[in-house]
Amino acid sequence: MTIWLMYCLLGSVVGVLAGLLGVGGGIIIVPVLAVLFAKQQFIASHIQHMVVGTSLASIIFTSIASMRAHHERECVDWAIVKRMAPAIVIGTFAGSWLTSQVSTHFLQWLFGVFLYVVVAQMFMKAEVKHSPRQSKHTVAMTFVGGLIGCVSSMVGIGGGSMVVPFLSWCNVAMRTAIGTSSAIGFFIALSGTVGSIIFGRAETALPKYSLGYVYLPALAGIAIFSMLTAPVGARLAHKLPVPMLKRGFALLLFALGTKLLLNLIR
Protein backbone atom coordinates (compact mmCIF):
# COMPACT_ATOMS: atom_id res chain seq x y z
CA MET A 1 0.00 0.00 0.00
CA THR A 2 2.86 2.36 0.80
CA ILE A 3 4.39 1.79 -2.64
CA TRP A 4 1.00 2.49 -4.29
CA LEU A 5 0.73 5.79 -2.40
CA MET A 6 4.24 6.70 -3.59
CA TYR A 7 3.15 6.09 -7.19
CA CYS A 8 0.16 8.39 -6.66
CA LEU A 9 2.30 11.11 -5.05
CA LEU A 10 4.82 10.83 -7.86
CA GLY A 11 2.03 11.22 -10.41
CA SER A 12 0.73 14.35 -8.67
CA VAL A 13 4.15 16.04 -8.74
CA VAL A 14 4.81 14.96 -12.32
CA GLY A 15 1.49 16.37 -13.53
CA VAL A 16 2.21 19.82 -12.14
CA LEU A 17 5.71 19.85 -13.65
CA ALA A 18 4.38 18.70 -17.02
CA GLY A 19 1.93 21.56 -17.26
CA LEU A 20 4.30 24.11 -15.76
CA LEU A 21 7.54 23.43 -17.65
CA GLY A 22 6.44 21.45 -20.72
CA VAL A 23 8.32 18.34 -19.64
CA GLY A 24 6.67 14.93 -19.68
CA GLY A 25 7.83 14.28 -16.15
CA GLY A 26 10.14 11.41 -17.04
CA ILE A 27 13.10 13.33 -15.70
CA ILE A 28 11.53 12.93 -12.23
CA ILE A 29 9.76 9.60 -12.80
CA VAL A 30 12.91 7.73 -13.86
CA PRO A 31 15.10 8.22 -10.74
CA VAL A 32 12.14 7.78 -8.36
CA LEU A 33 10.91 4.60 -10.03
CA ALA A 34 14.45 3.21 -9.98
CA VAL A 35 14.39 3.50 -6.19
CA LEU A 36 10.85 2.12 -5.81
CA PHE A 37 11.45 -0.83 -8.13
CA ALA A 38 14.63 -1.71 -6.22
CA LYS A 39 12.63 -1.65 -2.96
CA GLN A 40 10.18 -4.08 -4.55
CA GLN A 41 13.16 -6.33 -5.31
CA PHE A 42 12.74 -6.43 -9.07
CA ILE A 43 15.56 -8.28 -10.82
CA ALA A 44 18.43 -5.80 -11.05
CA SER A 45 19.19 -6.49 -14.72
CA HIS A 46 15.63 -5.48 -15.66
CA ILE A 47 15.09 -2.48 -13.37
CA GLN A 48 16.16 0.35 -15.68
CA HIS A 49 14.40 -1.19 -18.67
CA MET A 50 11.21 -1.36 -16.60
CA VAL A 51 11.77 2.20 -15.40
CA VAL A 52 12.14 3.53 -18.95
CA GLY A 53 9.13 1.63 -20.32
CA THR A 54 6.85 2.58 -17.41
CA SER A 55 7.97 6.21 -17.52
CA LEU A 56 7.19 6.52 -21.23
CA ALA A 57 3.80 4.85 -20.78
CA SER A 58 2.84 7.28 -18.01
CA ILE A 59 3.91 10.25 -20.12
CA ILE A 60 1.23 9.33 -22.68
CA PHE A 61 -1.44 10.34 -20.18
CA THR A 62 0.46 13.29 -18.72
CA SER A 63 1.12 14.78 -22.14
CA ILE A 64 -2.54 14.45 -23.18
CA ALA A 65 -3.71 16.39 -20.11
CA SER A 66 -0.98 19.01 -20.49
CA MET A 67 -1.50 19.31 -24.25
CA ARG A 68 -5.26 19.90 -23.87
CA ALA A 69 -4.69 22.57 -21.24
CA HIS A 70 -2.16 24.43 -23.40
CA HIS A 71 -4.25 24.01 -26.55
CA GLU A 72 -7.17 25.73 -24.84
CA ARG A 73 -4.85 28.70 -24.30
CA GLU A 74 -3.74 28.57 -27.98
CA CYS A 75 -0.16 27.78 -27.00
CA VAL A 76 0.41 24.72 -29.23
CA ASP A 77 1.96 25.31 -32.67
CA TRP A 78 0.47 22.37 -34.58
CA ALA A 79 2.46 23.20 -37.72
CA ILE A 80 5.68 22.44 -35.82
CA VAL A 81 4.15 19.26 -34.36
CA LYS A 82 3.27 18.02 -37.86
CA ARG A 83 6.82 18.69 -39.09
CA MET A 84 8.53 16.90 -36.22
CA ALA A 85 6.12 14.03 -35.42
CA PRO A 86 7.09 11.52 -38.19
CA ALA A 87 10.81 11.71 -37.39
CA ILE A 88 10.03 11.66 -33.66
CA VAL A 89 8.16 8.37 -34.02
CA ILE A 90 10.92 6.73 -36.08
CA GLY A 91 13.69 7.95 -33.79
CA THR A 92 11.81 6.90 -30.66
CA PHE A 93 11.14 3.39 -31.93
CA ALA A 94 14.82 3.03 -32.87
CA GLY A 95 15.79 4.20 -29.39
CA SER A 96 13.47 1.61 -27.82
CA TRP A 97 15.25 -1.13 -29.73
CA LEU A 98 18.66 0.17 -28.64
CA THR A 99 17.45 0.27 -25.04
CA SER A 100 16.52 -3.41 -25.16
CA GLN A 101 20.06 -4.26 -26.33
CA VAL A 102 22.08 -2.60 -23.56
CA SER A 103 22.46 -3.21 -19.82
CA THR A 104 20.67 -1.54 -16.94
CA HIS A 105 24.03 -0.23 -15.71
CA PHE A 106 24.68 1.53 -19.01
CA LEU A 107 21.19 3.06 -19.05
CA GLN A 108 21.66 4.39 -15.50
CA TRP A 109 24.96 6.02 -16.45
CA LEU A 110 23.35 7.46 -19.58
CA PHE A 111 20.50 8.97 -17.59
CA GLY A 112 22.82 10.36 -14.89
CA VAL A 113 25.00 12.12 -17.47
CA PHE A 114 21.90 13.31 -19.32
CA LEU A 115 20.66 15.02 -16.14
CA TYR A 116 23.85 17.08 -15.99
CA VAL A 117 23.41 18.12 -19.63
CA VAL A 118 19.84 19.24 -18.89
CA VAL A 119 20.99 21.19 -15.82
CA ALA A 120 23.70 22.98 -17.81
CA GLN A 121 21.21 23.84 -20.54
CA MET A 122 18.72 25.23 -18.02
CA PHE A 123 21.31 27.59 -16.55
CA MET A 124 22.63 28.76 -19.93
CA LYS A 125 20.68 31.55 -21.57
CA ALA A 126 22.36 31.80 -24.95
CA GLU A 127 19.83 32.85 -27.54
CA VAL A 128 20.25 32.88 -31.31
CA LYS A 129 17.80 34.87 -33.37
CA HIS A 130 16.49 33.35 -36.56
CA SER A 131 13.79 34.42 -38.95
CA PRO A 132 10.50 32.52 -38.59
CA ARG A 133 11.07 30.86 -41.96
CA GLN A 134 14.52 29.57 -40.98
CA SER A 135 13.36 28.50 -37.53
CA LYS A 136 10.67 26.21 -38.97
CA HIS A 137 12.74 24.65 -41.77
CA THR A 138 11.36 21.14 -42.38
CA VAL A 139 14.76 19.42 -42.82
CA ALA A 140 16.11 20.80 -39.54
CA MET A 141 12.89 19.92 -37.71
CA THR A 142 13.04 16.37 -39.10
CA PHE A 143 16.67 15.75 -38.13
CA VAL A 144 16.32 17.21 -34.64
CA GLY A 145 13.01 15.41 -34.13
CA GLY A 146 14.56 12.02 -34.88
CA LEU A 147 17.50 12.69 -32.57
CA ILE A 148 15.26 13.88 -29.72
CA GLY A 149 13.02 10.84 -30.14
CA CYS A 150 15.93 8.41 -29.97
CA VAL A 151 17.52 9.96 -26.89
CA SER A 152 14.18 10.41 -25.12
CA SER A 153 13.20 6.76 -25.49
CA MET A 154 16.57 5.58 -24.18
CA VAL A 155 16.38 7.64 -20.99
CA GLY A 156 12.60 7.40 -20.52
CA ILE A 157 11.50 11.03 -20.90
CA GLY A 158 8.98 12.94 -22.97
CA GLY A 159 11.65 15.10 -24.59
CA GLY A 160 10.54 18.45 -23.14
CA SER A 161 14.00 19.15 -21.72
CA MET A 162 15.29 19.11 -25.31
CA VAL A 163 12.26 20.28 -27.30
CA VAL A 164 11.63 23.46 -25.28
CA PRO A 165 15.19 24.86 -25.61
CA PHE A 166 15.31 23.87 -29.30
CA LEU A 167 12.05 25.66 -30.09
CA SER A 168 13.13 28.64 -28.01
CA TRP A 169 16.37 28.76 -30.02
CA CYS A 170 14.17 28.65 -33.13
CA ASN A 171 12.57 31.92 -32.05
CA VAL A 172 9.35 30.33 -30.76
CA ALA A 173 7.80 32.15 -27.78
CA MET A 174 8.51 30.36 -24.49
CA ARG A 175 4.89 29.60 -23.59
CA THR A 176 4.23 28.30 -27.12
CA ALA A 177 7.41 26.21 -26.93
CA ILE A 178 6.18 24.68 -23.66
CA GLY A 179 2.73 23.92 -25.05
CA THR A 180 4.10 22.51 -28.31
CA SER A 181 6.55 20.37 -26.34
CA SER A 182 3.65 18.73 -24.50
CA ALA A 183 2.11 17.72 -27.84
CA ILE A 184 5.41 16.38 -29.19
CA GLY A 185 5.89 14.48 -25.94
CA PHE A 186 2.74 12.49 -26.68
CA PHE A 187 4.25 11.06 -29.88
CA ILE A 188 7.53 10.26 -28.12
CA ALA A 189 5.73 8.52 -25.27
CA LEU A 190 3.33 6.56 -27.48
CA SER A 191 5.92 5.16 -29.87
CA GLY A 192 8.40 4.55 -27.03
CA THR A 193 5.79 2.62 -25.08
CA VAL A 194 4.93 0.45 -28.07
CA GLY A 195 8.63 -0.30 -28.49
CA SER A 196 9.06 -1.11 -24.78
CA ILE A 197 6.14 -3.54 -24.91
CA ILE A 198 7.29 -5.24 -28.11
CA PHE A 199 10.97 -5.57 -27.19
CA GLY A 200 10.22 -6.51 -23.58
CA ARG A 201 7.72 -9.30 -24.23
CA ALA A 202 10.47 -11.81 -24.97
CA GLU A 203 12.09 -11.26 -21.55
CA THR A 204 11.50 -13.79 -18.81
CA ALA A 205 11.30 -13.21 -15.04
CA LEU A 206 9.61 -9.83 -15.37
CA PRO A 207 7.41 -8.80 -12.40
CA LYS A 208 3.78 -9.85 -12.26
CA TYR A 209 1.38 -7.35 -13.88
CA SER A 210 4.00 -6.31 -16.43
CA LEU A 211 3.26 -5.71 -20.09
CA GLY A 212 6.65 -6.02 -21.70
CA TYR A 213 8.81 -3.46 -19.90
CA VAL A 214 5.76 -1.54 -18.63
CA TYR A 215 4.80 -2.16 -14.97
CA LEU A 216 1.04 -1.61 -14.89
CA PRO A 217 0.48 -0.82 -11.15
CA ALA A 218 3.02 2.01 -11.29
CA LEU A 219 1.55 3.22 -14.59
CA ALA A 220 -1.95 3.38 -13.11
CA GLY A 221 -0.94 5.40 -10.04
CA ILE A 222 1.22 7.86 -11.96
CA ALA A 223 -1.17 8.29 -14.91
CA ILE A 224 -4.34 8.91 -12.90
CA PHE A 225 -2.87 11.54 -10.62
CA SER A 226 -0.69 13.24 -13.23
CA MET A 227 -3.74 13.80 -15.45
CA LEU A 228 -5.53 15.40 -12.51
CA THR A 229 -2.70 17.83 -11.71
CA ALA A 230 -1.33 18.67 -15.19
CA PRO A 231 -3.99 21.36 -15.81
CA VAL A 232 -2.94 22.97 -12.51
CA GLY A 233 0.62 23.23 -13.78
CA ALA A 234 -0.56 24.68 -17.09
CA ARG A 235 -2.48 27.41 -15.25
CA LEU A 236 0.57 28.19 -13.11
CA ALA A 237 2.72 28.46 -16.25
CA HIS A 238 0.68 31.52 -17.25
CA LYS A 239 1.02 33.17 -13.82
CA LEU A 240 4.41 32.32 -12.31
CA PRO A 241 7.93 33.42 -13.34
CA VAL A 242 8.93 30.36 -15.35
CA PRO A 243 12.69 31.19 -15.62
CA MET A 244 13.05 31.26 -11.84
CA LEU A 245 11.13 27.99 -11.50
CA LYS A 246 13.33 26.36 -14.15
CA ARG A 247 16.46 27.21 -12.15
CA GLY A 248 14.96 25.67 -9.05
CA PHE A 249 14.04 22.59 -11.06
CA ALA A 250 17.60 22.45 -12.42
CA LEU A 251 19.00 22.35 -8.88
CA LEU A 252 16.73 19.41 -8.07
CA LEU A 253 17.90 17.57 -11.19
CA PHE A 254 21.53 18.23 -10.25
CA ALA A 255 20.95 16.62 -6.84
CA LEU A 256 19.20 13.62 -8.40
CA GLY A 257 21.92 13.13 -11.01
CA THR A 258 24.68 13.36 -8.41
CA LYS A 259 22.98 10.80 -6.15
CA LEU A 260 22.46 8.39 -9.04
CA LEU A 261 26.07 8.59 -10.25
CA LEU A 262 27.48 8.27 -6.75
CA ASN A 263 25.43 5.11 -6.24
CA LEU A 264 26.81 3.69 -9.49
CA ILE A 265 30.41 4.44 -8.50
CA ARG A 266 30.10 2.73 -5.09
Structural summary, described in words:
The protein has 266 residues and is mainly alpha-helical. The chain has one domain (2-265). The protein contains 11 helices and 2 strands. The protein has helices spanning 2-21, 26-39, 44-72, 78-101, 104-123, 132-135, 138-155, 160-169, 174-200, 216-237, 242-265, and strands at 210-211, 214-215. Strands 1-2 form a two-stranded antiparallel ribbon. The radius of gyration is 17 Å and the shape is globular. The two termini are 31 Å apart. Residues 126-134 have low confidence and may be disordered.
Mean pLDDT: 82
Shape: globular
> What is the number of beta strands?
2
Number of helical segments with 4 or more residues = 11
Total tally of structural domains: 1
Report the sheet-strand fraction.
under 5%
What about the largest sheet? 2 strands, antiparallel
Helix content: over 70%
Q: What are the low-pLDDT stretches, counting only 5+ consecutive residues below 50?
A: 126-134
> What integer value in Å does the Rg equal?
17 Å
Strand order of the largest sheet: 1-2
Distinctive features:
single chain, 266 residues, mainly alpha, two-stranded antiparallel sheet, 2 strands, 80% helix, 2% strand, globular
Produce the secondary structure layout.
Blueprint: H1 2-21, H2 26-39, H3 44-72, H4 78-101, H5 104-123, H6 132-135, H7 138-155, H8 160-169, H9 174-200, E1 210-211, E2 214-215, H10 216-237, H11 242-265
Antiparallel strand pairs: 1-2
Helix pairs in contact: 1-2, 1-3, 1-10, 2-3, 3-5, 3-9, 3-10, 4-7, 4-9, 5-11, 8-9
